[in-house]
Amino acid sequence: MKVKVEKNNIIVSEVSCLDLDLTLDCGQAFRWERQEDGSYKGVAGGHFLHIAKDGDSLIFYDTDKAVFYSFWVNYFDLNKDYDEICNRLKQDSLLASTIDEYYGIRILNQDSWEALCSFVISQQNNIKRIKLIISRLCKAYGDEVADGWYSFPSAEKLSTLGVEDFEALGTGYRAKYLERLSKSVANGEIDLDYIKSLPLAEAKKELLKIYGVGEKVANCALLFGMQFYSCFPLDVWMKRVMAYYPDGLPRCFDGIEGIAQQYLFHWARQNL
After folding, report:
1. Which residue among 4, 165, 228, 270 sits deepest, i.e. has the most Cβ atoms within 10 Å of its Cβ?
2. Could you give the number of structural domains in the chain?
3. Does residue 154 sit in the same domain as residue 221?
4. Where would I find the HhH-GPD domain in this sequence (predicted)?
């Protein structure tokens, strides 16, 4: 990765395997909006970003260099060698062609609290509606970090709300889950940092104790919000994919099953 600053923009070159559409609009994060020119605008970690791809380079518009290094490098996992990961996964015949076709999927390092709330909201919902609900939530209770762009509200802020407040945002039956989750995280009954520090099986067991958190939400929170790359979420699409692996997942997936899952999920949505 090479970094240079030009007119308040940060230009990053020599970053492999990062397609903005496949990474920011694939259902792992819900705060990114595609612009007409193919760039994206969004908020993460309380920071607004306008990002674009120009050939093999990424352009971070009007971005503070200190914030770039302290936050965005980790968020986009720019120091991880995805070429090495992809070459390893391509030992599997199905992924070999899939990675060639959909090259550029990365897993974002998202905040645990935001990811868990987002996937609670995602239950029985489509991406467009999930984004709309989360946008309302942030506008109503987050802090404005740029013109019309708001941070994700803290558990402490949301813990002051009642079920009816969440219902007013369009969360439906999920309102009661969000109300209890916010209060439990705010008062320390649920410690997401502690859960994140546990081995995968134990972390998942703790998440499944949370009211309104089932298998799918737990797996997504673990993979996308707690960086458990060995977590392999199974939904209806991935259960169909597993028919191609009657003997279980290949050894080349070990430790990076979640990254493999992202490619297989995208392939399944296009082909099954």
Report:
1. 228
2. 2
3. yes
4. 121-269
